[in-house]
Design brief:
Elements: H1 5-22, E1 29-35, H2 39-55, E2 58-64, H3 70-82, E3 88-91, H4 101-107, H5 119-127, H6 136-147, E4 156-160, H7 167-174, E5 184-188, H8 195-200, E6 204-207, E7 225-228, E8 232-235, E9 241-244, H9 249-252, E10 258-259, H10 266-283
Parallel strand pairs: 1-2, 1-3, 4-5, 4-6, 6-7, 7-10
Antiparallel strand pairs: 8-9
Helix pairs in contact: 1-10, 2-10, 6-7, 6-10
This protein binds NADP nicotinamide-adenine-dinucleotide phosphate.
């Protein structure tokens, strides 16, 4: 069965819109900082703006020159931290190499850190404290599983990829002693030996690798659930490009009990969870 992330994300957005309609004329504000002109970042920002416009969240974009220094960027963040009209601050990653991303994340007021990247929010996720913000992609995956009635309690979840924005926080969320969690989680990475054996032991396999069609049919147990986080542009023979995930969808779909497509799986859920986090921040101020 193909999990329709687009549809589930739409439902979440509609619920947020209805709640925000009731609070009019008050409106949340998401302030986004983009440094430079990374084409993928520009696409993501366009998608986030469209989603905010749709539900009634004010979206302010601060598009800064790629040569901006760290001090000037920190000053901008400090300004937004102190602006009472701003509920959420998002600094679009990646940043130019000369800027220390960790310092930038650390400078964001954790109460406005709607990406859930600040160490305070990461720590809260780890100890299961719901007062913080969960990182949007892992939260989106948890909701996808829940809405698809896939109970992972006691199941073996294998996450391939240990990034700070996907693999690690997802492991923290799914291992919590909470409903729709309680999974036995394994996190694999590029140093993991016998990867096929690990992935084949998964009841739920999450691919967050960044390599097109890396997870092939022989790596997947029949009847398992496969969640594809990857977003990759694959060159086609006619020199056009196609968006593909980290899973070889066409072959794996025949043996998986549930599978997310790319596009239309995890991606829309990430954006829906950003809306959710901005709403969560806003509602604490009204
Ligand atoms: P990342 O920071 O590049 O991390 C990739 C992870 O994959 C690393 O932990 C790496 O291991 C592991 N890896 C690489 N090659 C491997 C191999 N041969 N065997 C096992 N593990 C391997 O990537 P990310 O930011 O987590 O993103 C992963 C993918 O998800 C990308 O395609 C990205 O575009 C996509 N993404 C999608 C969304 C969404 O909303 N759908 C959100 C975020 C990211 P090491 O740690 O050992 O290097």
């Amino acid at each position: 069965m193909i999990i329709n992330g687009k549809e589930i994300a739409k439902e979440i957005a509609l619920k947020i819109k209805a709640k925000l309609d009731n609070l009019k004329p008050k409106k949340p504000n998401l302030s986004v900082i983009l440094v430079g002109n990374n084409s993928a970042s520009l696409t993501y920002i366009r998608m986030k703006k469209k989603a905010c416009d749709h539900v009634g969240i004010d979206f302010d974009l601060y598009h800064l020159d790629e040569n901006i220094d760290e001090k000037a960027l920190l000053k901008k963040i400090s300004y937004l931290n102190n602006d009472p009209k701003v509920n959420g601050i998002l600094v679009q990653m990646p940043l130019p190499k000369k800027i220390n991303e960790n310092e930038i994340i650390l400078s964001i007021n954790p109460k406005k850190d709607v990406d859930g990247f600040h160490p305070l929010n990461v720590g809260k996720a780890l100890i299961g404290d719901d007062s913080g913000f969960l990182s949007c992609t892992p939260l989106g995956i948890k909701i996808l599983l829940e809405k698809s009635n896939i109970d992972i309690q006691g199941k073996h979840v294998v996450i391939v990829g240990r990034s700070n924005i996907v693999g690690k926080p997802l492991a923290a969320i799914l291992m919590q002693k909470k409903p729709f969690c309680n999974a036995t989680v394994t996190v694999a990475h590029s140093y993991s030996r016998d990867l096929i054996q690990i992935t084949r032991s998964a009841d739920v396999l999450v691919a967050a690798i960044g390599k097109p069609k890396f997870i092939t049919k022989d790596m997947v147990k029949t009847g398992s659930v496969v969640i594809d986080v990857g977003i990759n542009l694959e060159k086609q023979s006619d020199s056009t490009t196609k968006l593909v995930g980290d899973v070889d969808f066409e072959n794996v779909k025949d043996i998986a009990s549930y599978i997310t497509p790319v596009p239309g799986g995890v991606g829309p859920m990430t954006i829906a969870c950003l809306l959710h986090n901005v709403y969560k921040s806003f509602i604490q101020t009204v």
